[in-house]
Amino acid sequence: MTVQLIYLVAALCFILALKGLSTPRYARAGNLLGAAGMAVAVVTAFVHGVEHNGLLIVVAIVLGVAVGIPAARSVKMTAIPQMVALFNGVGGAAAALVAFTEFLGVTEPDVLFRIATVLTVLIGSVSFSGSVVTFLKLQELMTSRPVVLPFGQILSIGVAAVSVVLAVAVSVVPSGFLLVLLALAGLAFGVLFVLPVGGADVPIAISLLNAFTGLAVAASGYVLANTLLIVAGTLVGASGTILTRLMAQAMGRPLANILFGAFTAVAATAASGEQRTVRAGTVEDVAILLGYAHNVVVVPGYGLAVAQAQHAARELVAQLEGRGVSVSYGIHPVAGRMPGHMNVLLAEADVPYDQLKELDDINPGITSVDVALVVGANDVVNPGARDEPSSPIYGMPIFDVDRAKSVVFMKRSMRPGFAGVDNTLLYNPKTTLLFGDAKDSLTKLLAAVKQL
Amino acid sequence: MIDLLTIFVLAVFVGFEVVSKVSTILHTPLMSGANAIHGVILVGAILITGHATSGLELVLGLLAVFLATVNVVGGFVVTDRMLEMFKGHKR
Predict the structure, then answer these.
(1) In this structure, are A145 and A24 located in the same domain?
(2) DSSP conformation class of A240
(3) Does B73 touch chain A (CB under 8 A)?
(4) Is residue A276 one of the residues assigned to a domain?
(5) According to the model, what pLDDT value does residue A76 have?
(6) Choosing from A201, A379, A400, A422, which is the catalytic residue?
(7) Could you confirm whether A379 is annotated as catalytic?
(8) Running DSSP on this structure, what letter comes out for residue A135?
């Protein structure tokens, strides 16, 4: 009875944590409340539910803390999305293991128990292997482009069908061996599910897998008849699904297109072999352009974060403002590698919150902007997303910087962006390219503006 | 069993409700925070390991405890680090 009451308190903490995390003001407090609820639940489970192996459990927890905290503390802010993917993956694996282990220990499992076990093992395995693939993609240990295997679609459907058959089989005939096969099928499906998701869409897949893990945890709650697991897992499953939809909306594309788009839109790239010219400028040219402008919009992207150029950008902006230039940052909802990621990175560099403007603040007045300075961004300013229905990123809202009076495009090279799509803005006569590392170029620009 | 189903259905609606209005700025921290919360599987892992009788159950259970702990502490710590940066930048 007391145990159930404590679990109820923990569940309330989780609900309030999610609520808090939805508003900037209470986000941090919400997260801490969630952690407090978790601590209470874990201690309660340990004190009331452990008959033996107590010491070994403590050792396993200590090891987990020893791995988890340093990893979370040392990860660079640019690498947050793949870190979240990994944490999500191990959570899914843990859920599958819990259900599997419980299944081994029960002598006469009833049907509902078996169904819950099957769901936990299957969803947990999918979440684990899928998360690992998203990690590899974001860490660029494998290509970030969509990977379409030969007969990929048929293969996915085949593996899904095998999973369903195995799932039904285990529900009817409880067999540990079949359950292992089911786990393997789930692992394979997780990989096949994420492979065709490309580039900028990967974070959406992470969010969806996050919701999956929540559902696996909820199903494991049925296996163990534990209400806290059901409530917390379901909360994450439901809120994760909504969040995934919100993210997809922020990119202006339906979820199905993001997950399965690679199967249908294979064509469309390679805009004929014609030779197009680009115009490269010097640091001094760009300094003059910026220094004598009335208003400037900076559009930062992942390249800025990778070069750790947030601070250099802020200094340049301060210098320009000192000269009376009005400057704002255009923050795309998916700038960086995840929705909201760029806000985190710029906050880290002490950029004032009110200089950060969204699409709807920038685009209506874009024609009166003298210079749009694109730093390490690409896909979020690609006019193809607006004008070319054949483009893989068609429909994603963009900054219409091609309608500004002039554009300065800071790039490392002519390589296309994360989505692997060519950008016509580069060949626009209004565009000046400034090649080089973002931080290096911004520092030189700062010096050159000071000289004016 | 119907009790558990009732709880499940109600929790679905609560989950939909709590995040229905969230600004894009908070998408990443919210995802990360939700990620930490599903680490509650640690409770399940502790319970099964505490009742494990065979060696195989014990090994699998301990592995689950370890992985779930990484999920929980890593998830909360990384979310806090992200949110820390927003501090003092509010209007």
Answers:
(1) no
(2) H
(3) yes
(4) no
(5) 85
(6) A379
(7) yes
(8) H
Q: Judge if A251 and A319 occupy the same domain.
A: no
Give the residues across from A373 on adjacent strands. A298, A408
Q: Is residue A272 in a domain?
A: no
Total domains in the fold of chain A: 3
Q: What is the ipTM of this complex?
A: 0.93
Q: What pLDDT is attached to residue A272? A: 40
Q: Kindly report the nearest CA distance between residue B52 and chain A, in angstroms.
A: 7
Residue of B nearest to A75 (CA): B78
User: B31 with A206: CB under 8 angstroms?
Assistant: yes
Q: Is A47 on the interface with B (CB under 8 A)?
A: no
Cβ within 8 Å, pair A224-B47: yes
C-beta separation of A360 from A252 below 8 A: no
Residue A333 lies inside a defined structural domain of this protein: yes
**B89 in reach of chain A (CB within 8 A):** yes
Domain that residue A399 falls in: 283-450
Q: How many residues does chain B have?
A: 91
> How many Cα neighbours within 13 Å face the side chain of B84?
9
Cα gap A259→A282, rounded to integer Å: 41
CB contact under 8 A, A53 and B84: no
Residues of chain A numbered 258-277 and touching chain B (CB < 8 Å): none
Q: Which residue of B has its CA nearest to A245?
A: B20
Q: Residues A396-429, buried b or exposed e (16+ Cβ, 10 A)? A: bbbbbbbebbbbbbbbeeeebbbbbbbbbbbebe
**One domain, residues A399 and A289:** yes
Name the amino acid, one letter, at A356.
L
DSSP string, A189-254: HHHHHHTT--GGGHHHHHHHHHHHHHHHHHHHHHHHT-HHHHHHHHHHHHHHHHHHHHHHHHTTS-
Spatial separation of the C-alpha atoms in residues A431 and A277, rounded to whole Å = 11
Q: Which of chain B's residues have a Cβ under 8 Å away from the Cβ of A305?
A: none
Band (pLDDT 50/70/90 cuts) for residue A281 is: confident
Dihedral sign, Cα of residue A164, residue A169, residue A174, residue A179:
negative
Under a CB-based contact definition with an 8 Å cutoff, are residues A432 and A279 in contact? yes
Tell whether A111 lies on the interface with B, counting CB pairs under 8 A: no
B55 touches chain A (CB under 8 A): no
Place of tokens 């896909």: A379
What is the model's pTM?
0.80
Q: Is the pLDDT of residue A269 over 50?
A: no
